[in-house]
Amino acid sequence: MEKPLTKSGMLIIILASLAGLALTYFATNNAIDAHSTKSWPTTEGTIITSEVTRSSRYVPHIVYAYTLDTVEYVSDKVGLTNYAQYKIESDAKVEADKYPVNTKVTVYYNPNKVDEAILNPGIKGEHIFMFGLGLVIFLAPLIGLIYSIRKAKENERNATN
Fold it and tell me: For 19-33, 108-122, 143-157, which range has the lowest pLDDT when averaged over its residues?
């Protein structure tokens, strides 16, 4: 016979589900922001640094400069979120090699904040992954809770018969 769900167990399930809902909310907002970058205006920029750095993992470090209305700006953001970290240096180098020094690139800049710029606009895999993870974290505890409640009711009925 299964143990009934305790109040503390129910609280943990609800808190886990709320955490998943919060993650889904933030992932949705990030995806909306990422999608909006596709409509940002563009200008030409030049890669000034393209290397692999190391902290706990290997990270492609790309720096580029672009000019708007005679003001030069510098950015190191390739995408709206820079999460690229690699266990193997050669994997990070493949990414860095896409941006050789002195190469001309298309820079997408935020029209409301021109010092914010990226090279790769749009929704990426990490946005979809975080949204999906949030949904799983949100729904799995709720499904488990519903199952537990139904099972408890079924056990209650069987005990009275």
Answer: 143-157
SS3 state of residue 37: helix
Are 20 and 28 spatial neighbours (Cβ–Cβ below 8 Å)? no
Contact 73, 114 (CB under 8 A): yes
CA 94 to chain centre: 21
Other Cβ atoms less than 10 A from the Cβ of 11: the count is: 10
pTM comes to 0.72
Q: How crowded is residue 150: how many other Cβ atoms within 10 Å of its Cβ? A: 10
The residue to which tokens 């190391």 are assigned = 54
The domain limits of the chain are 1-38+123-161, 41-120
Q: Maximum CA pair distance of the chain?
A: 84
Q: Helices in 1-61 by DSSP H: which ranges?
A: 7-36
